[in-house]
Amino acid sequence: MARRPFAAPALLAVASVLAVLPAQAEPSLRDQLITHYCSQAMAADFAKAGKTPPAGMVAFTCGCVLQQVDAKVSIDEAKTVCKQKAIQKYGAL
Fold first, then answer.
1. What is the enclosing helix (H) or strand (E) of 36?
2. 3, 19, 40, 79: which has the highest count of C-beta atoms within 10 A?
3. How many Å apart are CA 36 and CA 71, to the nearest integer?
């Protein structure tokens, strides 16, 4: 029985389709670090105040910080903007 030749055209077609699909990559190390330190800082602030953040607030705020940093905003400005957005969404605590 003869072997079938490698199907290079089919492989090329599949690779072409995969190349145009959006990537489902893991967050970058930079994004992970920003999210980690943001979450840690918020946890410390709430602990110091003796309060518990509402469900979703930390993820919302740290996601906002990440978006701001991606838009080339400084960390300090991102914290200020996102703190205000969190207060608008969750209320002052």
1. helix 29-49
2. 79
3. 19
Cα–Cα distance measured from residue 53 to residue 71, given in angstroms and rounded to the nearest whole number: 26
Closest to 38 in 3D by CA, of 18, 67, 15:
67
Map residue 91 onto helix, strand or coil: coil
**65 class by beta-carbon count within 10 Å (0-12 exposed, 13-18 middle, 19+ buried):** buried
How is 44-73 classified by DSSP, letter by letter? HHHHHHT--PPTTHHHHHHHHHHHHHHTT-
Distances (CA, A) of 67 to 57, 78, 79: 15, 9, 11
Mean pLDDT of 24-31: 84
pTM above 0.85, yes or no: no
Q: What is the pLDDT of residues 40-92, one digit of tens each?
A: 999 999 999 999 999 999 999 999 999 999 999 999 999 999 999 999 999 98
